[in-house]
């Protein structure tokens, strides 16, 4: 199974992201746009694992001593260039210092279970489209999109499975670690 650790989003955030995504889609020649049910903030991509490693990840999540929920908010639209295509995303702001601390703690507990640490700096975002080719520069589109910041409470970490169902990419929650517990 293919897994990753993520922060799931509430309906208000998902609905707002859908509006931004539709605007980008309108100004795209083509792209692979994220299904709204798959919007999330990745904390740690893990990849292919077996049942034994799945147990290790759950055990690692249980060792996280994080009992303070924190607030994030949606921000500007941006992109990561990939040759002539782009990965288009919505950035996150708010208590990003706490988000970065959570990322570091996750990296450490997962590393102790034998998983590799991330080589790249952590860059939290919500992907709304991959392999996007825009019909004009993103900067001009950014100036037109009315980004209304939406705040949301981060109160748990989810272990997600990435799989295909009837040809559709689906992210399923398979385990959660609540930040409301002591």
From TrEMBL:
Catalyzed reactions per annotation: a 3'-end 2',3'-cyclophospho-ribonucleotide-RNA + H2O = a 3'-end 2'-phospho-ribonucleotide-RNA + H(+)
EC assignment: 3.1.4.58
Pfam families assigned to the protein according to its UniProt record, in alphabetical order: LigT_PEase
Gene3D superfamilies assigned: Cyclic phosphodiesterase
GO molecular function: 2',3'-cyclic-nucleotide 3'-phosphodiesterase activity; ligase activity; RNA 2',3'-cyclic 3'-phosphodiesterase activity
Short motif (HXTX 1): ranges: 40-43
Annotated catalytic residues: 40, 125
All copies of domain Phosphoesterase HXTX, residue ranges: 7-88, 96-167
Span of the annotated motif HXTX 2: 125-128
Keyword tags: Hydrolase, Ligase
Spans traversing the lipid bilayer: none
The keyword Hydrolase appears for this protein: yes
HAMAP family hit by this protein: RNA_CPDase
Similarity field: Belongs to the 2H phosphoesterase superfamily. ThpR family.
Protein role: Hydrolyzes RNA 2',3'-cyclic phosphodiester to an RNA 2'-phosphomonoester.
UniProt-listed NCBIfam families: 2_5_ligase
Full protein name: RNA 2',3'-cyclic phosphodiesterase
The organism of origin for this protein: Alkalithermobacter thermoalcaliphilus JW-YL-7 = DSM 7308
């Amino acid at each position: 199974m293919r897994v990753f650790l993520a922060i799931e989003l509430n309906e208000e955030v998902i609905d707002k992201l859908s509006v931004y995504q539709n605007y980008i889609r309108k100004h795209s020649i083509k792209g692979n746009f994220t299904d709204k049910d798959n919007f999330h903030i990745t904390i740690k991509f893990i990849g292919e694992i077996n049942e034994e490693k799945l147990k290790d990840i759950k055990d690692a999540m249980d060792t996280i001593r994080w009992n303070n929920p924190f607030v994030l908010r949606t921000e500007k639209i941006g992109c990561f260039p990939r040759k002539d295509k782009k990965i288009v995303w919505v950035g996150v702001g708010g208590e990003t210092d706490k988000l970065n601390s959570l990322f570091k703690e996750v990296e450490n507990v997962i590393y102790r279970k034998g998983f590799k640490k991330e080589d790249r700096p952590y860059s939290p975002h919500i992907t709304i489209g991959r392999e996007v080719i825009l019909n004009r520069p993103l900067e001009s589109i950014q100036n037109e999109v009315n980004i209304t910041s939406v705040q949301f409470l981060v109160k748990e970490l989810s272990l997600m499975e990435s799989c295909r169902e009837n040809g559709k990419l689906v992210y399923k929650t398979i385990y959660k670690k609540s930040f409301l517990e002591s």
